[in-house]
Amino acid sequence: MHRPRKEMIAETRAKLIGAARQAFGTLGYAEASMDDFTASAGLTRGALYHHFGDKKGLLQAVIAEIDAEMAARLKVVSAKPDNLWQGFVDECTAYIEMALEPEIQRIVLRDGPAVLGDPSQWPSQSTCIRSMTESLQRLSDEGTILAVDPEAAARLVSGASLHAAQWIANSNDPEATSKKAVKAFKVLLEGLLNRTGKLHQPDRPSAMQPEVDRSPA
Amino acid sequence: MHRPRKEMIAETRAKLIGAARQAFGTLGYAEASMDDFTASAGLTRGALYHHFGDKKGLLQAVIAEIDAEMAARLKVVSAKPDNLWQGFVDECTAYIEMALEPEIQRIVLRDGPAVLGDPSQWPSQSTCIRSMTESLQRLSDEGTILAVDPEAAARLVSGASLHAAQWIANSNDPEATSKKAVKAFKVLLEGLLNRTGKLHQPDRPSAMQPEVDRSPA
DNA sequence: CAATTGGCATACGAAGCGTATGTTAATAGG
DNA sequence: CCTATTAACATACGCTTCGTATGCCAATTG
């Protein structure tokens, strides 16, 4: 019943992905030498080409792993509040906070699109978008927001979030920038709200947290 | 009177930038061989290294050229209507349309960030952002929009625009996708509008088609 | 008209990627 | 239990590409 073989293989894959993730995240995709980071995993490029085909294939695997983690985090965050709108707002906030992480910025937001093409084509990125889309669909059904295409709104909101995050992360004063960005973001999001009377809002819908409140520079 | 020297130099630079722009736009930065596209310009890499230092320097120059063109187009578009809000909306629309162009997508939106780092740090990208920021500042002074930080709003709106454009450009049905995206975009933008009475609007500020469409899906 | 600067080409070295070819170890079948 | 085949990896090679160091020629300058 011992299957050391399959386990060893999975371990090899994991080691390669881990080493590549580290190298891509710090040096960037182009500067990361396959010889170097396979060696740091105690392997050679032979293993890499066997499992992933080429360098791009490895990047795909790394991004898939990161994106799975992101989607899981978003699911948890958005499901926590009983208020749907609050859940959506929390989801957006979590999205921004994730996009502040250097590893995600570098691998997913910059190198990924350059090497693999537009993210809207990836199966991975769709995961996060789908999560937001579902939240918006429910809000639309509920009558909390206006009748817009949920996927379209999700993509616009995620685009705004990502750019806000990049702006904040690279700002001289991330704290102040974050405050300004979140405030403007909140105003924009309110554009989605259904303002024709208080039709179907089961709770106060405009309860976005006042700040992203990330750690100081 | 004849300064053929300076003219030749400028011509060489222009030829290099043009050839690189062509190669970067079609093959992408990484796949574009310096030997190949310098040869296509009737030159060698010697000229390139002399004028631009390295491949990244050339990419910077190419992006600067493209961005200057984009900024000029935006200026024209936003200044045309006498209504400030309409000018801003037109500017956003033009921004999306530019982001649909494959050359801009590839060079400015994908390879640029990967090679040169976050665009919010570039002097170039700031040009477009500054244009939008100024429009929003005027709208804010006018009282047409709520009091939000103009640069923050500009970055959010541009982020949403860029993502919308990428989504549209890579969609199976760009026509339908565009309609959905633009509609949702308008709804989001309306979040910026000042709805507390008709305070300071010198003209009808909501000249954007008022088809907010509060009908259910 | 000589000297020097600078625009650009050529030549060289160093990585890095991808492939082709081993080598070893684990499964499958008899 | 023994063999044959497959699969997981390593090794070795060639090709491309980048960056630099060097050289040449024309144009400016005094």
Structural class by helix and strand composition of chain A: mainly alpha
User: Biggest interface, which chains?
Assistant: A-B, 54 and 54 residues
- Give the strand content of chain A: under 5%
Average pLDDT taken over every residue of chain A: 89
Low-confidence parts of chain A? 200-217
Quaternary structure state of the chains depicted: homodimer
- Main beta-sheet strand count, sense and barrel state of chain A: none
- The arrangement of helices and strands of chain A along the chain is HHHHHHHHH
Radius of gyration of chain A: 20 Å
Q: Report the span from N to C terminus of chain A.
A: 52 Å
**What percent of residues of chain A adopt helix (DSSP H or I)?**
over 70%
Q: Give the count of helical stretches of chain A.
A: 9
The tally of strands of chain A reads 0
Tell the overall outline of chain A.
elongated
Brief summary:
2 copies of one chain form a homodimer. By secondary structure, chain A is mainly alpha-helical.
Fold and architecture overview:
Two copies of one chain form a homodimer. Chain A has 217 residues and is mainly alpha-helical. Chain A contains nine helices and no strands. Chain A has helices at 4-27, 34-40, 45-52, 55-79, 84-99, 102-116, 123-142, 150-169, 174-190. The longest helix of chain A has 25 residues, at 55-79. The N and C termini of chain A lie far apart (52 Å). The model of chain A is unreliable at 200-217 (pLDDT under 50). The interface between A and B is large, with 54 and 54 residues. Chain B binds a DNA duplex (30 and 30 nucleotides) through helix 1 and helix 3.
